[in-house]
Amino acid sequence: MALAIRFALFGCTNRPFFHIVVMEKRRAQRSGKIKEMIGSYDPMPNQDNQKLVAVDFQKLQKWLGFGAVPTKHVAELLGLGGFYPIHPMSYIKAKRKRKLMEKQPADMQAKEETQETAAIQVNEDTQPDSTEDASQ
Amino acid sequence: MAASMKCAWARCLSTILLNSTKHRCQISQPLYASCSNISGDSGEGGTDQTGQEAGLADDTKKHRRDPGKAFTDVRVQKILLRLTGLDLDKVYEYRAAKGAGVAKVALMSDQQLKKVYESASYKALRKLQMPPVLGAREPIDEVLSEDPELEGLNTSKLVFIDISQRVPLKKRTIVVREPNGTLRKASWEERDVTLQKYFPQSGRKIGLPRMFQQDNLECMLDDGKHEYILNRACSQFEIDDPEYIRVTQRTYEHIHSNGKFEDLRSTRHFGPMIFYFTYYKKIDKLLVAFLEEESLEDSVDLVKLYHIVHPSCKSAEKVASMPDPTPLEIIGAFAEMDATQKSLVQQAIQTYEKECDSTDSTQLRR
């Protein structure tokens, strides 16, 4: 089985919250078969307009040593954090959003981000990523 | 128990503790060394404690930036500890707090009582550990990477914190990815808030408690809650936080303008307060207060402290040149040469001399 470093969606309705966990890639995230939790990601910005990401880098490196592979979105996040080089999809998404901003007003930006959260959720449930293609 | 005997034990015990290698006054030194800017150099690392005159130089710019070096000097620590004193009744005063039990009453022999006093004094000295006086921390200003091509990806900042085990709080890596794509180290304020969220310390609130806002602080000070403010500031802030320095210095100034120095006697804040006045050359009122109480020892200690912190001041040079100065001569030299309110101090000295002459001369302490 493929050991992955991935998001597991917790939280509740209209309030997503991701745990960064080590578990098999194709398992359901709430099956309870998490090997280890190594961090968290809160996709909703707080009062200071911050999205908080906590990662236990020592454990991350240990599991990478065991052959765990980060998923797309985890790799993107770690790239933004400086642990990995920036993921090419980050550049692509940024460019797409800039293009969109030129055409549409600022509140569309927030819409894009909620769609992205849904994209992460859908992705981790291992279904085809249809929302992103729709936004092009 | 006679007050004088209690006093004698306390003095004896504190001398032992000051001289013993196990409980040396080195509390502030490693703390001072670790309070350096997390991103920058830990530069002035090993400050040797024997006569670090460079750190106590009279260059006013250096002075204002870094009182920590002077504060961690062993000679300064010894004097501050002596001045603080040890009033067991005050240290063990009943405070309404969680876990505060009911006082026990016990019947004991003299020997048992002596032992209890000794262990209580030992513990009390730990309660009197002084929070160090440091200069305000230098702002963190380090950019790790600039990526303008990420502009537009996020409208919010992404804050990354390393939650690895067994890493000291000050060394934890916290970085921020700005919406414009810059990856930088988190500022001190961001650090404090984020660390409190992930590694909460008891007694701390996220953000500034309303009590420390200027108007509310003034209300508290007028109510006379100096010790409470200082205790809470100690638990809320880091000691090199500019907010901590603002709150403590305002409290000291308030005490100074009301002359209520004795409120903090035998608390852990007395030493830092005395040091603050000495460092910023405001000891006149304090000296007068000590002389009015007729504690010559304290007055001389204060002047000696002034000479250590400001070694190139005129009275220090004069006293150094004197062969065997008496306490009153040392204070007199200070009053003549370095006191800002010369007449006030000299008058206090004269009053003290009169009091001593009128009473028995054997009451003069060494």
Characteristic key phrases:
heterodimer; A: 136 residues; alpha+beta; five-stranded mixed beta sheet; 5 helices; disordered C terminus; B: 366 residues; mainly alpha; four-stranded antiparallel beta sheet
Protein model, in words:
The complex is a heterodimer of chains A (136) and B (366). Helices cover 43% and strands 25% of the residues of chain A. Chain A has helices at 57-65, 72-81, 88-103, 107-124, 130-135, and strands spanning 3-12, 15-24, 36-41, 50-55, 69-70. Chain B is mainly alpha-helical. Chain B has helices at residues 3-19, 28-34, 60-65, 67-71, 74-84, 88-91, 110-127, 188-198, 214-222, 226-236, 242-258, 270-279, 284-292, 296-309, 314-321, 327-337, 342-358; strands spanning 143-145, 157-162, 174-177, 183-185. In chain B, a hairpin with a 5-residue loop joins strand 3 and strand 4 (183-185). The longest helix of chain B has 18 residues, at 110-127. Strand 4 (50-55) of chain A pairs parallel with strand 2 of chain B, so a sheet runs across the interface.
Cα radius of gyration of chain B in angstroms? 24 Å
Span between termini of chain A: 34 Å
Runs of chain B in which pLDDT lies below 50 for 5 or more consecutive residues are 20-30, 35-63
Number of strands of chain B: 4
Radius of gyration of chain A: 15 Å
Order of helices and strands of chain B: HHHHHHHEEEEHHHHHHHHHH
Helix content of chain A: 40-55%
Helix content of chain B: 40-55%
Low-confidence stretches of chain A: 127-136
Oligomer: heterodimer
Shape of chain A: globular
Strand order of the largest sheet of chain B: 1-4-3-2
